[in-house]
Each structure stands twice: as C-alpha cells, then as structure tokens.
Amino acid sequence: MPASAQTSVYVLGNRQKREVAAAFDEFRRFVSERCRLAGADLTTDAAQALAAGVDRIIVLGGDGTLLGVGRSMGVRQVPLIGVNFGKLGFIAEFSVDEFKSQFERAVSDASLVRERMMLEATVSTNGRPTSEHAALNDCVIHAGAPYRMIELSIYVAGRHLTDIAGDGLVVCTPLGSTAHNLSAGGPIVQSGVEAFVLSPLNPHSLTHRPLVVEADTDVEIVAHSVNPGTTAIIDGQVACPLARGHRVRIRQHPATFKIVHNPLYPPWHKLITKLSWGQAPTYS
Length: 284
Description:
By secondary structure, this protein is α+β, with helices and mostly antiparallel strands. The protein is built from seven helices and 16 strands. The radius of gyration is 20 Å and the shape is globular.
C-alpha cells in the first residue's frame, strides 16, 4: 500500500478562475482514488480543512490563491501543495501534469516541506490596535489618491531609524522579496532566510536605499503626512486605510508558512526560468 493512502488531504480551489472550476471535479476524483480525501471546496478559506485535521491541503489556483489560503490558516499552518492555474506560479510550484506525476511524494514525503517565515502587521490608532493581519509576502504602505508625496517615520527595535518622504514603503519577507519589493528595486533574498526587507517607494532622496534587518526585530511605521487614499496593503489583497498618526507595527508571525517543494526542480529553478535572473541579454 503506498504511503499516500494513509494521508488525509483536502482540496481547495479558486472559484474565480474558470480553469479551476472546470478541472475541480476531475482533481477531486484523482485525489480520492489515491489517498484519504477529507473534503473539497471552491474557496480560499481553509477553516473546514483545518477542522478536518488534514495532513496536506492541495490548492488549485495561482500564487495569490496560495497567499489567501495561507493567511486564512493563521497559527495553524498545514503544508500546502500549490497547483498552478495562474500566470507566474512562483509559489504554486506544480503544473497539473507535474502534480499528477509527483503525487505520491508530494503528499507523503516530509522532506519536501519547506517552512517560510511570515509577518504580522498591526495597525494602531491612539495606541489602540484596530486591525491585525498575517502576511506571507509583504505589507506595503502606499501613498494612494490623490498621489501626493507622503511622509513616514520608521522605527526599528524601538529606535528611530529615519524619516522618508515619497510614495511609501515595502516591508516584506524573503518569500515576498520577489514580489512588490523586486519591482521597487529591493534585493532578492533566499526564501529560507529569516529577515525583513525595507524598500522605500520612490523616495524623494538620494540616500534612502533598501535595508535588510533581522527577523526578530520589530519595525514600526508612523504616518505623519498622508493622502485620503493612503493604505497599508497586506499581500496585495487586504487594505487597511491609514490616517495621520496611525502606526503600523510589523513583526515576525509566530507560525511558519509550509509549502511543498516540487522535487523535479533545483532550488533556483523558479528564479532563473520564471524571472530570467542572470540570463545573458539577447541581441538581434
């Protein structure tokens, strides 16, 4: 009897993707014939999967789908197997064919599970927390409409670090370093490293550059001058409006995000093939 037969699995899918909805029943049959299927839902909320006490959650969608599922689990993180129905597929490592060919290992081989740090962002007003969110990728303070320059103070480990005027700030995990941070000119950080990256967005200064700080360091951003649309954006999916005087505290989340690695590829495969890192330019 294969090891996967003893594994309890739940299947989740992004109902907003037509390809997922069309393939969902076939995936459910495929999984149920090979392991203990605890349930299947077209949702990014993992509450029912957690209640079932499963060993793995198979997620059909794209990177954004995995971010939503991961946040929904909070401190009770279960290893996710991401099957890519999106565009980039940086976190969702398996194609449909790869998932089927590697199914046995993906659901039963503990050595394929990678743990990645998460962050926790807390927005406070007058010293009182008003919202708190986990994030796998990042918390982005964005100027918002009418897109005038905003002013932020940054504190690290309780000490004032700097004041920044510009379009905002990206605070990301290593997993999120290839997302908004990369577009903002921040460094790519190996995903197993535990650290925060702080990358200013279009700072009105020649001296502000991206900074990497230790993961056990609290980062606090104080909004001094903002726009009506200034927002703290969590993983590109959750928006928290910010007003003058609001504080955003970012620290390491107590849980780690667990993702199943595709055994067909080496660690740097995604960076090289999907983002073309280190590739020589082509000349016509």
